[in-house]
Automatic annotation (TrEMBL):
Pfam families: HxlR
Organism field: Paraburkholderia fungorum
Family annotation (InterPro entries): HTH_HxlR, WH-like_DNA-bd_sf, WH_DNA-bd_sf
Keywords (A to Z) from UniProt: DNA-binding, Transcription, Transcription regulation
Domain of life: Bacteria
Single GO MF descriptor: DNA binding
Protein name (record): Helix-turn-helix transcriptional regulator
Gene3D superfamilies per the UniProt record, alphabetical: Winged helix-like DNA-binding domain superfamily/Winged helix DNA-binding domain (1.10.10.10)
Segments forming domain HTH hxlR-type: 11-108
Length: 147
């Protein structure tokens, strides 16, 4: 199955990993949430090849998580800003990070703190309807209705 086929799947997880399953895209979004906006900032932070960064920024822009805005005319330069969809992705990053801390931890790890009160953020996914922590109750996957 290729990414184009995955993006047409009825499963929202499949559709999302078609573009966001790439580690570079996730790390670019992480850095964008920490305030980075410019190509050179992303390149320096990630140590990514410029051609690869260009492709990932284009993907995130095409998918509507980032938008380009010109900040210099001479020479022409653009920055990348989070869109509403990009800002809505932050909880996903934190859940991935929480999983990583629990199952891929060891050694020194980056901490994420609430900027207002300084406490460490402990991300957990909760079902809005029941209030139950996701993963504590059985789930049932229902395919879309035909027709």
């Amino acid at each position: 199955m290729n990414c184009e086929n995955i993006s047409d799947e009825p499963c929202p997880i499949a559709r999302s990993v078609a573009f966001a399953g790439d580690a570079w895209c996730l790390l670019i979004l992480r850095d964008a949430h920490s305030g980075l906006t410019r190509f050179d900032q992303f390149r320096k932070s990630l140590g990514i090849a410029p051609t690869m960064l260009t492709r990932r920024l284009a993907t995130l822009t095409e998918e509507g998580l980032l938008e380009k805005r010109r900040y210099s005319e001479h020479p022409p330069r653009e920055e990348y800003l989070l869109t509403e969809a990009g800002r809505d992705f932050l909880p996903v990053l934190f859940i991935i990070g929480a999983w990583g801390r629990q199952h891929r931890g060891g050694g020194k790890m980056t901490r994420f703190l609430d900027a207002e009160n300084g406490t460490e953020i402990k991300a957990v996914a909760v079902d809005e309807v029941t209030g139950a922590k996701i993963g504590t109750r059985p789930i049932r996957i229902v395919p879309p209705e035909e027709g």
